[in-house]
Design brief:
CATH class of the largest domain: Alpha Beta
Shape: globular
Number of domains: 3
Distance between the termini: 17 Å
Strand content: 15-25%
Number of helices: 11
Radius of gyration: 21 Å
Number of strands: 19
CATH architecture of the largest domain: 3-Layer(bba) Sandwich
CATH topology of the largest domain: FAD/NAD(P)-binding domain
Amino acid sequence: MVGGGIVGLATALALQRALGRPVVVVEAEPRVAVHQTGHNSGVIHSGLYYKPGSLKARLCAEGREAMFAFCAAHGIEAPRCGKLVVAADEEDLPRLDELERRGRENGLAGVKRVTPAEMREIEPAVGGIAGLHVPETGKTDFIKVAEAMAADVRAGGGEVRTESAFLSARPVPGGLAIATTAGPLDAALLVNCAGLQCDRVARKCRVKPPIRIVPFRGEYWGLSDPSASLVRHLIYPVPDPRFPFLGVHFLRHLDGEVTAGPNAIPAWAREGYRRFSLSPRDALGTLLYPGFWRLALRHPFTGLREFARSLSRRASAHALRRLVPGVRAADLRYHHCGIRAQAVFPDGRLADDFVIEEGERSVHVLNAPSPAATASLAIGRHIAAIAAKRLP
């Protein structure tokens, strides 16, 4: 197993339970959950957004309930706080209608259309002309969840080897010879859940992935009072259906802190979390990929708007006031960023659903963005079922 994020650990757990075999997880970092898992917003998604019948829709619904149960069993805080999705103007109403339809088709019995007066009973400072209340949404600390998963893998006889970066894999009689920075491994099967590095790992396994990972930075603002006091739980916009991003939103965390974001701009380092991080290898990989330019030319004004919000508190506050009119630019401060491993096809299309490819004695998870943390336990079972068919 390559990758010590929440999807890799959930998959290792599912494989051990299904097959009764020990699993070795190799993770390049000194601890688990350093990258996408460790920079996640902490939201347990309900499954409202996803196309009915898609892997995302099915695995999010299964994974949501499995995640609440896992947190309860391990003593991890995970309240069902609910969220409000806000239609800011008339243009949002048809998309809000579609979200409501999707939510009901995806089995969200509790989703409810609310009037402006009802919205303000839930979030008194919210703006907008209509909304959806989604009570099945929750929040948790996915780092604690990943650490609990790693402990369960070890308790089941497996290993989680940190500071052990994957280097290569080659077929040998009966399995694979795997090279890592911490020494060689013999394995019957390799499962690639390497997130931001997944396409590179696939190529090292002699698989030609149909996508390239184009990393996107998602930057968050922290809110101080009086703006922070305007948010009770979760406030989301109606998302743009052209993109697999949910738009800038508000979140009151378990510790009471309030953040707003993220934007979505190209990242020039797959694992660089400072505002101006640069990896020449990663930057050239993006800039030389035709799919990136086709994507950028298809949506130039959207890209410029996202950059403006990255550089300007005033521009970010203007976008946030569509949801909560009382937010002040003076109350925003740069908080942190996450980096999304976004799979992009050569023609510039963004992969919206989970993408899983199979190779010789290997299975590769090539696109697992949000709601992957929510759905991780269900994704793990799904991948384990695929992997089991490839084992002797």
